[in-house]
Amino acid sequence: MNENYENSKERLQLLQTKVQRFLGLKSTQEKEQALAAMKVKQLDTAIASNIKVLTPLLKKIKQLEMQILPWKKLQQASMHLIELLELGQHESSLDDEYSHAIESQLLALEKQFQQVEHERLFNANDALHAYISINAGAGGREACDWAGLLYRMYQRWAERRNFNFRPINAISGEESGIKSAEALIEGKFVYGELKNEAGVHRLVRISPFDSAKRRHTSFASIAITADIKHDIGISIKASDIRIDTYRASGAGGQHVNTTDSAVRITHLASSIAVSCQAERSQFQNKERAMKLLKARLYEKSLAEKKSQLKNQQKTKKKIEWGSQIRSYIFHPYQMVKDHRTKMQTSALQNVLDGDINAFIKAALDPQDQ
């Protein structure tokens, strides 16, 4: 136990210092005071009986608790662990098994701290689930294959993070890959993690479809939309939209291509169109498509409120050369490079297998939070 005591104690003290530094910030203390005041307000019978007042109050309480309670739990856990560490130092009868148990708990605590510190970069809206849309760009068959590889990359990323990946809609390429696809990824802070993945992704490789084995450059675009809940105040009248039904395409089965279960909804004023064919019934597909449409319209309204929509349309990038945010190079060398953060790695296959956390972390700017 003595051999590891000093090292473990030093690591624990460092962790405690970092946690205490956060809890001692003026902004954190102000949030704690606000949280305490809201909890007192919640007990007021007039407020407790008024659902319109109580609902937003509970939402604010939950948001503040998400920002503070994980740090409080870290503080308590580190204090408890240092007590166990001190006990082991003074009790010579405690064996190596005890030492290993302390080390295991310390590693878990350090991992928890890293996650809490990472989530500190996010705001309340970042805690939402997210829709991811992938569209093939310039490059024809090669671009469709590239879009398919990107779809798999984000699916594998979701699996690695134990997030739920739910396909919504897909249009297959004529010979391989996909022309476009959309999925819902459900999990804590998914939108915050993925929001900076939006943009054009570029592929450079020797095309497997070119008999002359020439190098090709292809593009695909990624769009990320927050999965906004139903209480966002977006009202859609029947006269505002056009609903089209069509037969779902897929791998087969008794419900495929036998009924017009797939649904496409077009918002006439904005020309925003969404589709869903993943569910078994037309009603379910319509319900999911409406939810996605509301999320898209809400995102658009936020952009307008911030006076950014006009600038976004002026600077909107085409899915082609010169507009990429990240390049994936297979030839003449292997490298993935983010052109915004300058983050790069030669572990190309790992990235395509969903190992993109380093790029996500590099793109998160604390100054914007």
Give a description of the structure.
The chain folds into two domains: 2-120, Up-down Bundle (Methane Monooxygenase Hydroxylase, Chain G, domain 1); 133-369, Alpha-Beta Plaits, CATH 3.30.70. Strands 2-3-1-5-4-9-10-11 form an eight-stranded mixed beta sheet. Strands 6-7-8 form a three-stranded antiparallel beta sheet, covered by helices on one side. Helices cover 47% and strands 20% of the residues. It is flat and about 70 Å long. It has 369 residues and is an alpha+beta fold. The chain is built from eleven helices and eleven strands. The model is unreliable at 251-257 and 308-316 (pLDDT under 50). The protein has helices at 2-23, 26-42, 45-48, 51-90, 96-119, 140-160, 190-194, 282-305, 309-314, 348-352, 357-363, and strands at residues 130-136, 164-172, 178-186, 199-206, 215-226, 241-246, 262-267, 272-276, 324-329, 335-338, 344-345. Helix 4 (51-90) packs antiparallel against helix 5.
Shape: flat
Q: Structural class of the secondary elements?
A: alpha+beta
Distance between the termini: 43 Å
Backbone CA Rg: 25 Å
State the main characteristics.
single chain; 369 residues; alpha+beta; Methane Monooxygenase Hydroxylase, Chain G, domain 1; Alpha-Beta Plaits; 2 domains; 3-stranded antiparallel beta sheet; 11 helices; 47% helix
Compact description:
With 369 residues, the chain is an alpha+beta fold.
Helix and strand topology:
Elements: H1 2-23, H2 26-42, H3 45-48, H4 51-90, H5 96-119, E1 130-136, H6 140-160, E2 164-172, E3 178-186, H7 190-194, E4 199-206, E5 215-226, E6 241-246, E7 262-267, E8 272-276, H8 282-305, H9 309-314, E9 324-329, E10 335-338, E11 344-345, H10 348-352, H11 357-363
Parallel strand pairs: 4-9
Antiparallel strand pairs: 1-3, 1-5, 2-3, 4-5, 6-7, 7-8, 9-10, 10-11
